[in-house]
Structures are given as C-alpha cells and as structure tokens.
Amino acid sequence: MKTLTDPHGRSFSYLRLSITDICNYRCQYCLPDGYQKGESTRFLSADEIENLVGALAGLGLWKVRLTGGEPTVRKDFAEIAARVSSVPGISRVAATTNGYKLAENAHLWRNAGISAINVSVDSLDRRRFADITGHDHLNKVMDGIKAAQDAGFEKIKVNTVLLRGVNDHELGAFLAWIRSEAISIRFIELMETGSNKEYFTRHHIRGQEIGDQLKALGWSEMAREPGAGPAQEFQHADYQGQIGIIAPYSKDFCNTCNRLRVTATGNLRLCLFGNGGHSLRHLLRHRDQREELQATVAGLLLQKAPTHLLHFHQTGTTPHLAALGG
C-alpha cells in the first residue's frame, strides 16, 4: 500500500477533519464574542467527506477525528460518522465536542461508529466553567460524559486548556475526579492565534509546569501508542484515569506529527499554524477522482515545513482554533 510521508521522515495516518467552523460556545481563548457569520459558506457534504476519507485510506490513513467548530451542530453529524466509519481501512473514528448534546446522543453516536470521544471541560467549578465558555453547562456536559461511559466508548478524554490565573489551580480537583474514573485528562497549552494575542500573553502557562507537579506527586510518563498524537502521557498506580499534556511550545513537539488537517470547506492545511491552505474540493466530487486526489495530497506534503514557528509569534493564517478544530 502507498503511504503518505513528508521530506522530514514523518508518515501520516491520522486525519483531523473539520466539518463546520460554527460553534455555539464563546470560550474566552477562542471565540469570546461568539461565532461571527461571514460570507455564505457551504461546508463539505457527506458525499465529499466520504470521497476524501476513501482516498486517504488508500494511502494508509486509518484514523479520522471529526472536529469543528462544534461538529455536532451539523444535523447530519451521525450520518457523517457512520459513513466515515464504514470506509474500508478506517479502524478508528473519533470526535471532539463541547459536550452540549452528548447526554442525549451518546448511544446514537457510538452506534454510528465513533469509538473515541474528547469532551472539552476547562473547569470543574460551575461558575468558572460558565465564565470561560459563556454557558452554564457544566452539569449538562458532565452528564454527557457519564452517558458516553454507559454507551461504551472505547476511549473518553477530557480536553482542558491551561489558563494561568484562571484554572491552573484546579489540578487537585481533576486528579480527585479520575482517581476512580477511567478517563484521560488532556491539559493543553494555550496557543497563540491571530485573534488572541493579548489573552495569550496574560494567560499562557507551559505544560511542563503541570508535568513537574505530576512527577512530584508520583505520576510516571508512559510510552506513546501507535497512531497517538503528540501528548505526553502520565499514569499512577493509585488512579484509574490518566493525564496527558499537549505542549506545542516544547522542544521537538513537531517531530512526531502524524496528522493531516482539512477544513470544513475542503482546504488541506499542512500545519495548524501554517500560511494558507490548498483547496481539494474540486477533487471530491466523484470517486473516480481518487487517484488524482491521492497524487495531489502526496505532492503537497513535500512542501510541509519541519516545525511551526509559534516560538516567534508567527501564528499563520489561523484566526482562532474554531476555524480549524485545533
């Protein structure tokens, strides 16, 4: 089978596919003023998505994560998940959600073929959660996580953006939660984007600070699983859950990059913080375009840079993370 590689020795088996840039939350670090509708946008259809995934699966890609914006605002979310999970060669379909629809849809989405789900929970304090997201939904989201457990998702992860002076003191509360719950908490470094520079300066905290606290508490680092993302994983014998730290400002973060990113309108982004994208949409209309699509993606990967330039405050053309799913 053909495989997707770049000039830096990295292979790509994982697609992060945004299916909408619409989000119903107003997170301080991403969309503090809420989603602003621009020009009329037609997002990729379920047919186009299936054609895209089918072509990439033919190049060795086996994992797809559906993201947004908030992907579940699409009425055909379950259909998209079912169609992606039925593509030959795709063995894992995951989704990232803010969880506002999870409680009532967990079984539906699990039956549609989603086996892993990431839920955003930036605070375990109800008032602070509302302040960060713009919605008093903590109880609803926590009910959704319980529903996901009942529905039998193979992996349930919680995404928590680290915010200095806002939630960085909540490590103890998160650890108490996962002492008896088989959930993986992902602490994610706040990333600078085109629209949050001042907020980033005030609230950025390095993931290493949390990692050092975990080690002092007896947590040990785990080996990376095949196809895993860049998270540094920790475990502790006294805890059912695990901790992951995603630290894009750490040394050599990009060395393990294994993912492609495609926007909700069909643009291939070679890096989350790169300059611009490459439209694939004209190659997603028919299945008989598969070979041309494969050749196009393989050729574009030859242009992939060895690393992002976040350390130099070069954030590319990503205005906010809702535009590309993080």
Helix coverage percent of residues? 25-40%
Order of helices and strands: EHEHEHEHHEHEHHEEEEEEH
Number of domains: 1
CATH-level-2 architecture: Alpha-Beta Barrel
CATH class reads: Alpha Beta
Number of strands: 12
- Mean pLDDT, as a whole number? 88
Q: Report the radius of gyration as a whole number of Å.
A: 19 Å
Could you say which structural class the secondary elements and strand pairing correspond to?
Answer: alpha/beta
> Would you tell me which CATH topology applies?
TIM Barrel
Report the end-to-end length measured between terminal Cα atoms: 29 Å
**Strand adjacency order, main sheet:** 7-8-9-6-5-4-3-2-1-10-11-12
User: What is the overall number of helices?
Assistant: 9
Poorly predicted runs of 5 or more residues: 308-317
Largest sheet: 12 strands, mixed
**Strand-residue proportion:** 15-25%
Oligomeric assembly: single chain
How would you describe this protein?
With 326 residues, the protein is of the alpha/beta class. It has one domain: Aldolase class I (TIM Barrel, Alpha-Beta Barrel). The protein is built from nine helices and twelve strands. Strands 7-8-9-6-5-4-3-2-1-10-11-12 form a twelve-stranded mixed beta sheet. Helix 6 links the parallel strand 5 and strand 6. Helix 1 runs parallel beside helix 2, helix 1 crosses helix 9 and helix 3 packs parallel to helix 5. It is globular, with a radius of gyration of 19 Å. The two termini are 29 Å apart.
